[in-house]
Amino acid sequence: MAATGSEEETQLQDMEEEAAGGEREMESEEEGMGVEGSDEEEGDSSDDEKENEAEIQRLEEQLSINAFDYNCHVDLIKLLRQEGELVRLHRARQKMSELFPLTEEIWLDWLKDEIRMADQDSDREKVYELFEKAVKDYICKNAGPEIWLEYAQYSIGGIGTQGGIQKVREIFERALTAVGLHMTKGTAVWEAFREFENAILGTVQPLPGSVPTPEQQALLNAQLERIHTLFRRQLAVPLLDMEATYAEYEEWSDKAISAAVTQQYKKALQQMEKSKPYEEALLVAEPPKLAEYQAYIDYELKEGDPARIQVIFERALAENCLVPDMWAKYTQYLDRQLKIKDLVLSSHDRAVRNCPWTVGLWKNYLLALERHGAEHQTVSVDNFEKALNAGFIQATDYVEIWQAYLDYLRRRVDFSKESSRELEELRAAFTRALDYMKQDVEERFSESGDPSCTIMQIWARIEALHCKNMQKARELWDSIMTKGNAKYANMWLEYYNLERSYGDTQHCRKALHRAVQCTSDYPEHVCEVLLTFERVEGTLEEWDIAVQKTENRLTRVNEQRAKVAEKEALLAKQEEEKAEQRRKAKAEKKAQKKTQKMGRTGEKRKAEEEEEEEDEWGEESEQPMKKHKGEGDQGFRDAGEEAMETETGLFGRKAPLAKTSEVSAGKKPQVAAAKQGNQDKRNDRKSVFVSNLAFTLEDPETKIRDFFERCGPVEEVRPVYKQNGTFRGYCYVQFEDQKTVPEALKLDRQEMDGRPMFVSPCVDKSKNPNFKVFKYSSSLEKHKIFISGLPFSCTKEQLEELCKEHGSFKDIRLVTNRAGKPKGLAYVEFENEEQASRAVLKMDGIVFQDHTIKVAISNPPQRNVTGKPESSRLLGSMIPRQLYGARGKGRTQLSMFPRALHRQPAPQAKAENGTLQSQPEGPVREEPASASGAQPKPLSNADFAGLLLKKYNPSPGHIADECCLYTVTSLTHLAWFVQLSREFEPISKEQY
Q1: Mind telling me which residue stretches traverse the membrane in this protein (predicted)?
Q2: How far, in Å, CA of 149 to CA of 176, rounded?
Q3: Which pLDDT score, from 0 to 100, does residue 750 have?
């Protein structure tokens, strides 16, 4: 066969030289044309070259600062290729390929450039190495046969060298393994392979009329058998358009197709028919086709063919390369089923290159490296250090990757030896992990990510269990307790169990005594454990000491709880008294207004009385406060929630001002009598509350009636208006039948005039003060992103165009103020958190319509507690958040807040899980606490005036000690002082 191969190479060498000569002639012509063109446009292109060079330098500087800027890499490569800077272009492509998987387009351009520059055999080997690197990237291996075909085509140019034909066949065989099973694109590779073998067949056939020698006949028969084999292999694989291939084989073959081949073909055809619905679903689906691929994968997993399972996974990842769950499922299948080292490790490597922010993929990669016996240098330096620089989204992700690495180091240690290099490396890694969490992670996230000190607990247990070093374990636990964990019973019991297992009785008793003294969440539990321990281990004296200590501790706890309950009762009473005072003041104010109106005559007086009666028809409560800036997502429902608190306003007007003019002109319907009748027949059980309607909605009563009549007959629609006659954006819809209400509630969030309306049950808040319809999210929303810095002219369609390439989204909401004007903010809700994470990485810091936007994971702050006074709610909104998420620290203007008005700390009382009970809010006197635990006295008018006048220094720009009179520097501070002053009676001009 070696002689046969040599003869084939000799016969095809002339063909190769002719093709190469033709290419060189074309290149020479192109170069000549290029020179001529450059002479003509030399003057025009000089300025462009300078601009491009400046842009190239800017991009290179930017990459030196942030090497992970994907778009910057792409722009730099395009400019360098345009300018013909081949050396710098090669370097730029090399750097990008080390950080990211390259797209098929970038690889093809790179390969074609290298092929044009390859003149010698040594250069050809470099091109082969580049092809090998290209086919390892995810998007080249499975997206299509283009790069494999380019690889085979290039190798054909080297068939004149020794073993050239065999190398081409080897590349085609690898291409068939990679994409030959691709049902829609695999046919191209099979046909290219057959065309190559047919070309070889043409060179070995004898001349017409000549008699072939035995060697020539043997060579001819072998080549024919190769082509027969390719046809048979292809017909055994389920591919689209298999019938055409079978017909081609019948036409090509000089003898009938065997029954065995026909049987395999029919079997593959049946398999293709089964898979065809999944392929058709992929053809009609919109990218990224995640659901369709998932269904296809589940089908292939049930079928159980490993090769086809691998192919469908690779196809899915080609279009969903930034979906961590897909990579996790694929690598898990490879780890548990195929277990082929090269395939497993390469897939894990591609997974973390595509989704470097996902800690789970890095953990699985470290396990796979250890499972397949990778060198310690590969695990530690090449991969773990890369994971630390991957840019995880949460602080807890760094805890997980450190735990995975420490587990790997622990399994390398032989604890039968007192000391070893591996043990010292493990201890050094624990020390580095703690420093890393304290410095790097806390600096970035403003939280450690490991409040329970899990890493330190593992270290302490390893020292106690494997190293028999309880002294070191105790030192670690002392450090754990000093980090705020001493108040939790479960932490003390964990330490006690460690001492119980590996320590001694003395230290167990000491730990339990400290637990009884320090625990604040479940003191009864640790007291019970101490008494149980003394029953088993202690003497009578030790038992008496334990009983006395637990009784004293529980007595103090009960006293503290009683004080807390007393304070809560007193606060509730004070709130009731304040509410009663406000109701009385409001009633007196209304009475004064009615007295003033008694002197008025004519139709104007009657119209005003009718409006007053309309006000009284709503429930008696304060006007809702306006929502403050920065209260997180779902802010666009504020109007709806405020309206749910009370039915304040005027019902029944269809035209805000026109009706008033009609009444004044002499059209006097019996409004008061009608309203009184409506109030008598009002039924909340047959009604729904509709909010978040547009303030500019024209004829709201008619539109809302028409909208809800699809659910059933509507008895009455009660839109709510302001005193000036403008619509307030919410109303009440009462049906004739109570059974219609559930159908109406299903219309929640449907749009009316381009705005989603909220439909909720109608509940009397005076009878059900704790009723709450809308539940606002106050935790990290990983599937939703928050965008700031948008231009006010940005539309929803433009934002959809910007976000659609990062995944499929459920909803996009542009934040507006109450007047409907944009605020430059938006929320985008994606299908899953992976798409949201991808959008954050790709969109944060980009320039959109000449505005640099900021993008982060949505992390709404805590909502205000219902029932607080208005000043307390406003004050609470200015308190800085304690837990910061992906957006970093929340901004606050607390530094501008007078210290004299700060809430004073009350004696701490603990509830479940160590959470403080709510303390009284609002300004209080700075008086020493009395022995009876009486509450601080609220400020009077004189106190409030004193706060404003106390120690006032009139020098410009100077704030005196205690900072009692502040310059109002913003609307926020002005609003605060106005709201706070409402808690007190007016201050006279002389007092001020």
Answers
A1: none
A2: 10
A3: 85
